[in-house]
Structure formats: structure tokens, C-alpha cells
Amino acid sequence: MRQVGIGIAGFGTVGAGVYKHLSGNRELLCERLGFELTVRRIALRDPNKPRPIQPPAEIVTTRWEDVVNDPNVQIVVELMGGIEEPLKLVMAAIRKGKIVVTGNKALLAEHGKEIFRAAEQHRVPVFYEASVAGGIPIVKSIREAFVASHIRSIHGIINGTSNYILTRMAQAGLSFQEALREAQEAGFAEADPTLDINGWDAAHKAMILASLSYGFWMGACDILVEGIQDVTANDIRFAKQLGYTIKLLAIIKADEKREVEVRVHPTLIPSTHVLANVNGVFNAVAVHGDVVGETLFYGRGAGQDPTASAVISDLAEAAIALESPRAQYGFTPHDLYGSCKPIDEIVSQYYLRLCVIDRPGVLAEVAGVLAEFQIGISSVIQPEAHIDEATALVLMLHDATHKQMCQAVDRLSQLSCVKKTPRLLRVETFS
Amino acid sequence: MRQVGIGIAGFGTVGAGVYKHLSGNRELLCERLGFELTVRRIALRDPNKPRPIQPPAEIVTTRWEDVVNDPNVQIVVELMGGIEEPLKLVMAAIRKGKIVVTGNKALLAEHGKEIFRAAEQHRVPVFYEASVAGGIPIVKSIREAFVASHIRSIHGIINGTSNYILTRMAQAGLSFQEALREAQEAGFAEADPTLDINGWDAAHKAMILASLSYGFWMGACDILVEGIQDVTANDIRFAKQLGYTIKLLAIIKADEKREVEVRVHPTLIPSTHVLANVNGVFNAVAVHGDVVGETLFYGRGAGQDPTASAVISDLAEAAIALESPRAQYGFTPHDLYGSCKPIDEIVSQYYLRLCVIDRPGVLAEVAGVLAEFQIGISSVIQPEAHIDEATALVLMLHDATHKQMCQAVDRLSQLSCVKKTPRLLRVETFS
Question: Most exposed of A6, A87, B71, B334 (fewest Cβ within 10 Å)?
Fold first, then answer.
């Protein structure tokens, strides 16, 4: 049986999972594929660290260069973490004509353009299923299964940590800090959860999906990113009263002019919508294409096993590509879609929570400011008895641009009846 | 740009959809693929029939042989319907070395073994994404994305017509006949809905998914198939009282001994389960793999556009395979899984509805019979006031084999207190 040599750079949770399952399901993989995926070299930081899965010492190295340069390694798996060293490794592998498999979303979001340009020049495919939504084959589906469709929109819950936190806040009434601590204790949040919490992990994944869908790489400054760190238990409660659930949603859309918008932010979605019921660390991605219609994928978005599943699936394709290079190198640039819509012009509905003095005329003042900026109000609730002199006033607002809303909020916060900073969240009704 | 010649045999709803979208999204497809999919020949039954989409007369023929023999056709799309003629066409195309794309589930379920044997011999891939669940890329996902996983189970709502009927019965309280008529008027059921209603359409799809998952083709007599024609509005109502929703579910499982069971039947599933909330003509397939974990796919399972999306995705792969033949021919036989579990040994929980005389001692008699066959009772309800002397008695039963239950039901129907034939439905708790 043909042997395909694999090199793994990075032996953390996912790297170890790939190694474990390549060996554990070796027989199945051989039967299905007709060749064997054999790990020939592993680069890891500390060979003396005790590990639950211990690779044979003779294939271990501490330098990724040894993986790339090993003549018996035909496919290089990059699972190191970070950006600078992985970029060097990926470019070195491509230059040597070795197929790359990576799960590094930050690397692709920041350097996708140059990586895939090099990949095309050297006719070396780069696979990256594991970079988005773990075990859910969303990259393959958009690239291959939905090839016939213009992608109208993608809505994704693609950060398990923040979904776990929001779920626990909603279900157990925890505060953000309590839920975060629980997530860390349960192993669902890292010691430094910054990128999960501030939305950038989801944003990197959204940039990958958007680029794949629309054929160009966007910059970090083209997209609107807000994290969940300021979502309060009250917001979750008020949203629920109004029939909504708050999720960290990645939204990718193209309009009739083929302008693309990409944004990640805590979002009120109707509690009856299927995405509102994706809980805990699960991920889900809804894709709407002009030909395929509405689709949705659900599964584990992180963790050793689901992510290893995605890497091994890429390895299988990579091994097939070794024998018979495909026309595609993982990303096909084209110019059917022009550019990103300026963030100021992004239109959304909004949830606006104000802390106001509880006296007659306040609503008139607030409504007056909104009217001035041409922003319509769809409903108003005063969700609780007032505390001291101040009370919460929640308004659901019709479509408005980011710019309109920023200006209106700025003006509102100058009103004498408005205490504290107004809280603004976006609403997605999928209409 | 390279042109790839496509021939389409069958120009009904799906065939016309493929033609329409290949042309409508031609620019997008060319950009993404780097080649053009060009329809060079179309076989249809009646060239004079007026059609919403009219192909150019010069490429139309009434004989599928013209499609297969056309030297400019490299990929043959079979969308004729029926089994005998499609089989001849597919075998003829394979013998001529032409790649086949088909959406014909009955053909594959009945002749998959010989088709893929021929495909392997002639090194010609056969693609069939459109045969299961329309726009949902479940074939590709199982074959490629989940290649690393032993498939523990698949649970699918894969017949849109029966799901529409059951949804309408549950939501509007319609009878089966009323819901069927409505489905026909809405265009969701064919004039002859037999295969949708009796479970065999779903069973054909289940056989395809099971074969793909376990590496062998099973026969129609290896699987348990019941349709929805005998589901009553009462059963739906009683199930709801007990916290369940009735769906026509395809269940595919492998146990520790790697014996495979495949069954399609109306099934009580917990109303909180995500599959219970898949309504109308939508399809959903939940796949559980040992590495990937739980996943679920949701989308339109039928209709011109979603099915055309699947066919075009296969065409794209087929065109790539023309240049660089893959190791896989659409189905890889292996013997890691032995055989199907005998139907008699299939274990399930059950819902048993009896029509009994309303007098003391009846429950004792019924329970006695069940005890005799070692079948445990988890709950009993008498869901409504009695009508005449007879009343409904509903029992939820613990795990029992098919054989045990058949024997018990047989004995129960002989009891003098039991009127009418007992009604048995299976329960799936996904535990």
C-alpha cells in the first residue's frame, strides 16, 4: 500500500489528536483511501514534557525546519499557534512543493492573500478545514458543494467559548465574569481568553469564509468586530422579554451591488430561530446561496477530536492531490465581488438600552433625537421597576446605518435625562 | 478556457434546473473552477412539449444513447427517473469511460454494487450527491469530511413529502388524507406519492448513506421499512402529550460488533430534539462519528434549485477528475463491517396504542402479556375519555427486540379486552 509521509509541526491538543486518530483509525483510513497516512516527523517545543500521547522519540524534533526539510515528508501539517513562525513554515513548505494543511485561522486571516498567491505560483494546494468550526465541513461545503451558488449570506456561531458564556448567562443567570470563570474551569476557555471574548477569533474565521465565498481577501479594518465582554445579564433578560436571544454572530452578506459586509458582534436573534437554540460550545453555520437555498451545519467547533477530524479529512485530500493535482489551490481569487461595504454604511436593526431619569417627557426627548436622525422605533419597553431615580428604557429600532446610529447615540448620551453610556446591540431578523 | 462537455439525459424539473443554473451562474462557475461546464447534448422524451426552459433544438435528442455516444460529451448526467433505462445508460457510459453524475436513489439502492464494481474496473468515477437530501452535501461529507470517523449512527429526515404531511398533521390537526391532499396541491407530493408515503424513498437514500458509511451494499430485505400511511392524528396528539414528535426517521447504526442496522419508520423523538423541529419539506441529517462527534446538516431536500446545486457540485468534481483521476470512484468497498443485523434482533423502545374495553383489570392483563415477553413498561396513559365501551390505552415501553414486540403484539391482539389491531410505533431517544 502506498505510504504518504506526514509531518506535524505543533503537538498541542490538536496535533496530538491528529496523531492519535491517524493511528487509532488507521485500518479504516487505509480501507477507505487505499493508501496510508504515516506520520514521519513531529516538531514540538519541549520533548521532555510528559504527554498523554507520546510520539516515538526518533521522529521528534524541536525545529519545524526539520519537518519541512525531511525528504520523507510530503504533507506538512501546521498546528503551532502564533503567526510569525507558522507563516515562515507555510511559505517554506510551499516553496519546497509540499502540500500544507493548517488550522491556523489568524494566520490565514492576516496572510491568506500572500499564502494563496504563493500556493498558486508553486502549484501547491493549501487545505484549512480545521481553521473554521472544527468538525463542521464548512470550508469544503462552500468551496465544493456550493460552487454553483452566489452566497447571499452566512450567519455563524463560530466561537464556542463565547457561545458557552452567553448560554450560561442566559440559562443560569450568571454574570459575564461568572460565566467566563466557569468556562475556564470547564476547559472551554483558555487562560488568556482575549481573542474569544473580544470577537477576533470569530472574526478571523468570518474573514476566511467571506474570502472563500467572494474571491478576495479583506483586511481587518474592513470588518466590524465587537466582543461579548460588555453584554450584561440584564441585556440577556430584556432581550428574552422581547422574544430574542443574544448570540455572538458572524454575519457575512453580499448585496445586489455585490458589496460585501462582514461583521461579528453580539446579536439579538429571534428566540424561535434555529441559531438561537445552538447552545454551549456547539457551533453552527447557516449558509444561504442563490441556487442551494437555505442550509445549516451544526457540530462541535473546537476540541481535540472534531478538529483532528477536519485535519485528517484535509490530509486525505492532500494525499489524493499529491498524485493528481487539482485545479484548485484552496482559494480561487476572482473579481466578481468588488469590495467591502464601508462600515459606516452597514445597515442593521438595533436594540438600544438607555439608563434614564424616570420622569415624564423622557421618552419624547429620546424619540425626538432618534427622529432627527431618521431612525424609526418599532417598540419600547421599560423592563423593570426603577432603581433610585434612574431606570432602564429599552428601544427596538428599525433599520439604520452604523453612522446614523453612532451619531444618534452620541447625541443621546448628551441628554441630561440619560445617565451612563447608552448600550447598543444589533438585531438580526434573517428577513 | 478549457471547456468540459456535459450531456444531460432527462430534462424534467432537475435536468432543466441544472441547465438553467449552469447558464445563469456561468461566470461565477468559470471564475471559481477555471474551466467551463458546457451542455453539449440533452436527451428528453418529447421535444415538442412546451417548457419553461427550452434548450436549443440542435443539442436535443430523444435517445439517451446519443448523449453517451457523443464524442463531445465527457460527463453524462443521468436524471431520467425509473431504473431499467438509467441502469443501461450508466453502464454504457462507464464502459465508454465517461464519468457519470446521477441523482437516482432507486437506481443506486438497487444496483449500486454492480455500478460501482464497473466504475472501479473502468476507473470511472460515479458521483451521486443529488440522490440524497438535495442541497445538503451529505454524500460528500460522509465520504470526504468524515473519512477519519467510524460512523456510529445517522439519523435523517430525508423525505420532504412525508415530513410535510406529518408537520401539517401536527400543526394543523389534519388527518393523513387531508395533509396528503394539501401536499399534492402545494406541489410537495407527486400525483403518485407511493414511494414517499410508504417509506421506500427514504429507505433508498438510507441504503446509500449506509453503504457509503460501512463499505458494503445491503439488500432491500436487510432493512426495516414502514411508511407514514397509518399514522393517525390521535397518535400525533398522544405522542405530543408524552413529550414526543412523530417524524419519518431513517436510522442507521453500527454496534460494537460492527453489525449494521438500517431502518425507516415513523418514530417518536423527544420534542426538544433538534430533529423534532425540522418542519415542512426541509430535510436534516445528524451524523455521529467516533472522531468528529455529533454533527447535523439541514436544508432543502428536494426541488429544482437545491437538487441542481448538488448536481452542479458533482459536475465540478467530475470535471476535475477528468484531468486528474482520484483514487476514489464514489464508493469504496471494504469488509470492516460485516453485515446487517437480522431485523428480528433490532432493538428499540416502543409506543404501543391499544384500543381496550374500559373495565378494571385490563391494564393488569396487558401488563401481564408484556411481562411474559420480558418487555418493561416506562409509562402508561389513558389519553382521553372513553368512547362507547372502548378507550385508548397508550404504553411507552423499554428496549425490546423486533421479534419480542411482534410476538407480544400478536398475543395482545388475541386478548378479549383488546379491540382493533394494536398500533406500534418506535421511539428514538438518541441516548
Answer: B71
Mean pLDDT of chain B: 95
Pick from B323, B356, B374: which residue ends a domain?
Answer: B323
Q: Does B113 reach chain A within 8 Å, measured CB to CB? A: no
Average pLDDT of span B36-52: 95
What does DSSP say about strands A260-270 and A418-427: parallel, antiparallel, or unpaired? parallel
In a domain, B146, yes or no: yes
CA dist B65 and A62 (Å) reads 61
Q: Which contacts (CB < 8 Å, 24+ apart) does range B26-30 have?
A: B27/A336, B28/A148, B28/A150, B28/A336, B29/A147, B29/A148, B29/B312, B29/B316, B30/B1
Q: Which domain holds residue A72?
A: 2-134+304-323
Interface residue B3 vs chain A (CB under 8 A): no
Mean pLDDT of chain A: 95
Mean pLDDT value of segment A229-247: 96
* Claim to verify: residue A353 and residue A370 sit in the same structural domain: yes
B205 in active site: yes
**Stretch 7-36 of chain A: residues touching chain B, C-beta under 8 Å:** 21-22, 25, 27-29, 31-35
Three cell numbers at A271?
Answer: 428566540
Nearest alpha-carbon partner for A101 in A325, A318, A331: A318
| A320 chain-B contacts, CB cut-off 8 A | 326-328
Interface pTM, i.e. ipTM: 0.95
Nearest CA in chain B to A272: B277
Q: What would the grid cell of residue A135 be?
A: 468538525
pLDDT digits (tens, 9 = 90+) for A132-186: 999 999 999 999 999 999 999 999 999 999 999 999 999 999 999 999 999 999 9
Q: Are A41 and A72 within 8 A, CB to CB?
A: yes
Chain B within 8 Å of A285 (Cβ-Cβ)? no
CATH classification of the domain holding A392: 3.30.70.260
In a domain, residue B331? The reply is no
> How many contacts, defined by CB atoms under 8 Å, are there between A and B?
202
How many domains would you assign to chain B? Answer: 3
CATH code for the domain in which residue B261 is found: 3.30.360.10
**Residues 230-249 (A) with a CB less than 8 A from some CB of B:** none
Residue A73, domain CATH: 3.40.50.720
The whole-number average pLDDT for the span B171-189 is 94
Say which of B98, B105, B205, B247 is annotated catalytic: B205
- Proportion of chain A above pLDDT 90, given as a percent: 91
- Domain assignment present for residue B328? The answer is no
By Cβ distance, the residue of A21, A33, A328 closest to B327 is A33
Of the partner residues B149, B310, B313, the one whose CB lies closest to the CB of residue A309? B149
State how far residue B143 is from chain A, nearest Cα, in angstroms: 9
Residues A92 and A236 in one domain: no
- Looking at the fold, whether B375 and B421 belong to one and the same domain comes out as yes
